[in-house]
Automatic annotation (TrEMBL):
This is 3-methyl-2-oxobutanoate hydroxymethyltransferase. Keywords: Cytoplasm, Magnesium, Metal-binding, Methyltransferase, Pantothenate biosynthesis, Transferase. The lineage of its organism: Bacteria, Bacillati, Bacillota, Bacilli, Bacillales. GO terms for biological process: methylation; pantothenate biosynthetic process. It comes from Gracilibacillus thailandensis. Belongs to the PanB family. It comes from the Bacteria. Catalyzes the reversible reaction in which hydroxymethyl group from 5,10-methylenetetrahydrofolate is transferred onto alpha-ketoisovalerate to form ketopantoate. Pfam families: Pantoate_transf. Pathway: Cofactor biosynthesis; (R)-pantothenate biosynthesis; (R)-pantoate from 3-methyl-2-oxobutanoate: step 1/2. It is an enzyme of class 2 (transferase). It catalyses: (6R)-5,10-methylene-5,6,7,8-tetrahydrofolate + 3-methyl-2-oxobutanoate + H2O = 2-dehydropantoate + (6S)-5,6,7,8-tetrahydrofolate. Its main location: cytoplasm. The active site is at E182. NCBIfam families: panB (TIGR00222), PRK00311.1 (NF001452).
């Protein structure tokens, strides 16, 4: 399994870091077999697998439930888990307790938090000091969707771009071992990546980040309602799944399924002993 020091080395050696989200056992297993560098149990799970309207509905319990399944499926892959909406904003004590629960119950290797507020920076310091690796997350931070006014590209003007550069440095200085940059212009992400010694992981942030992350169900077009423009679909599994289910449905209706090969056929002897009709 790779670790935080190796991720740092990968950046130094210009070796790209690959990350994909996973929310359950089979997805984690397949991602591990595909040899991705890092898994993310993203709070996007609320939207992608639980059908919530946004990530705001996601709870610590939801994250733990799915996090456990992921680490069971990928025991040998470095796994990051998102701290959900407001689970790290009530107080530093409550945040640390939630962090402890998420680490101890899921066996994840690192936590991810959104933003760079004073309190979040303090939390990152305390977690790092406690031996918990932390990933930051800047740009489009979905837990603040109602402040941002939608899922929009961030850092499009001078002020917000400068703020993003500053925030990224603050995250690094607070001890974060990596930063996710979501939905920011390519040149801004490139500049931040060059300024930081910790690796940046981009999503909709261009090719010059030190790594890339995408949502599992997005690259597979698996039951997703919308598709951000930065997503590349590598295989359309959604339509494959649908047609398989349609065939099953039709074959049951028509009597084609189950055929003899999918049936426990009774021996002639027992049928005779029981006087069963043909
Ligand atoms: N399936 C899925 N994939 C994701 O990447 C994702 C989620 N869900 N849920 C949580 C957040 C929300 N995310 C989103 C959602 C929408 C856009 C989007 O539609 N963006 C526009 C940009 C619009 C603009 O120009 O400002 C796009 O065209 O990509 C981006 C990120 C990323 N995360
Ligand atoms: C999109 C990634 C970065 C994320 O935070 C999530 O999946 O929740
Ligand atoms: Mg997230």
């Amino acid at each position: 399994m790779k670790n935080t020091i190796q991720f740092q080395k990968m950046k130094k050696n210009s070796e790209k870091i690959t990350m994909i989200t996973a929310y359950d056992y089979p997805a984690a297993k397949l991602a591990e077999e595909a040899e991705v560098d890092m898994l993310l149990v993203g709070d996007s799970l609320g939207m992608v697998v639980l059908g919530y309207q946004s990530t705001i509905e996601v709870t610590v319990e939801d994250m733990i439930h799915h996090g456990k399944a992921v680490t069971r499926g990928a025991p040998n892959t470095f796994t990051v888990i998102d701290m959900p909406f407001m689970s790290y904003h009530l107080s530093i004590e409550k945040a640390m307790e939630n962090a402890q629960q998420m680490m101890q119950q899921t066996n994840a290797h690192a936590l991810k938090v959104e933003g760079a507020s004073t309190n979040t920076l303090k939390l990152i310091e305390k977690l790092t000091e406690a031996g918990v690796p932390v990933v930051g997350h800047l740009g489009l931070t979905p837990q603040s969707v109602h402040v941002l006014g939608g899922y929009r590209i961030q850092g499009k003007d001078k002020e917000t771009a400068k703020q993003l550069i500053e925030d990224a440095k603050k995250l690094e200085n607070s001890g974060a071992f990596s930063v996710v940059l979501e939905c920011v212009p390519d040149r801004l992400a490139k500049h931040i990546s060059q300024q930081l010694s910790i690796p940046t992981i981009g999503i909709g942030a261009g090719k010059d980040c030190d790594g890339q992350v995408l949502v599992y169900h997005d690259i597979l077009h698996y039951g997703v309602d919308f598709q951000p423009s930065f997503v590349k679909v590598y295989h359309q599994v959604g339509s494959d799944i649908k047609s398989a289910i349609q065939q099953y449905h039709k074959q049951v209706k028509s009597g084609e399924f189950p055929s003899r090969e999918h049936t426990f056929v009774m021996s002639e002897q027992l049928a005779a002993d029981l006087n069963l009709e043909e």
